[in-house]
Amino acid sequence: AISGELAERDPDNVEWQHNYAVALWRVGEFRRMRGELGRSLELLARADSLMRAALAKAPGRTWGTELAGIDTTYSQALSAANQRQRAQQMLMATVKALEAHHTADAQARRADAWFSLGEIHRANGDRPRATEAWSNAQSELAEIVPKSNDPRRLRLWVRTLARLHRFDEARSFRARLEKIGYQDPEIEQICSAEGC
User: Fold this and answer.
1) Cα 77 to chain center, whole Å?
2) 23 and 4 in contact (C-beta within 8 Å)?
3) In this structure, are residues 136 and 112 in contact, taking their beta carbons and an 8 Å threshold?
4) With 70 as the cut, is the pLDDT of residue 1 above it?
5) What is the band of 151 on the pLDDT scale with cuts at 50, 70, 90?
6) CB–CB of 13/6 below 8 Å?
7) Do residues 130 and 118 lie in contact, with contact meaning Cβ atoms separated by under 8 Å?
8) Between 20 and 30 A from 56 (CA), which of 14, 105, 184, 193?
9) pLDDT of residue 126
10) How does DSSP assign the chain, residue by residue?
11) pLDDT of residue 9
12) How many Å apart are CA 164 and CA 47, to the nearest integer?
């Protein structure tokens, strides 16, 4: 609420616009996970718009990976709302936008986009293309996850391994997440569907 008030008071303050976009992204993601797609889509569209505007005003900022995160979450909500073609286009644009970035954060964002693209192909009944996308996610994560304690990266790794039927590895990293108290209904759903 405060970040929104600040952003409205001074639309030229890129820091406030950025902070508000990130806040909307987090709330939009929460709403998506609760199945509140209409509200989620509104929040994520606003987050996307604010972040793009902030980046246009301050192109030297390193918020491109956050924009990728917003767009991946937005595409997940679009896919859940049966707007898969639009979601797929957004994910491919996200992967392309991150090609020139070689940080661990950019790799994790690319992996998330690839994984989400795989989920869309799976929903469309195209397991070979889904497997290709999940393999791309696995390639992006392979060098950064074993050293990571970030639950979001570990979560994505477990989901990717499960989709690729690498069950022993998925179980091992899932146990690691559980050891730190991290529970995720999406991991449960995937493991139930894939048999891990």
Assistant:
1) 10
2) yes
3) no
4) no
5) very high
6) yes
7) yes
8) 105
9) 97
10) -HHHHHHHH-TT-HHHHHHHHHHHHHHHHHHHHTT-HHHHHHHHHHHHHHHHHHHHH-TTS--HHHHHHHHHHHHHHHHHTT-HHHHHHHHHHHHHHTTT--SHHHHHHHHHHHHHHHHHHHHTT-HHHHHHHHHHHHHHHTTTSTT---HHHHHHHHHHHHHTT-HHHHHHHHHHHHHTT---HHHHHHHHHHT-
11) 62
12) 32
Q: Which amino acid is it at 134? A: W
Q: Which two tokens stand for residue 27?
A: 């709330």
- The reported pLDDT for the residue numbered 7 is 55
Instruction: Report how far residue 61's alpha carbon sits from residue 15's, in angstroms, rounded to the nearest whole number.
Output: 10
Residue linked to tokens 């090609």: 99
- What is the rounded distance in angstroms from the CA atom of residue 186 to the CA atom of residue 160? 12
Compute the distance between CA of residue 110 and CA of residue 139 in angstroms, rounded to an integer.
Answer: 10
Residue 49: count other Cβ atoms within 10 Å of its Cβ: 14
User: Is 121 within 8 Å of 129 (Cβ atoms)?
Assistant: yes
The one-letter amino acid at 193: A
Query: Among candidates 61, 80, 72, which has minimal Cα distance to 140?
Result: 72
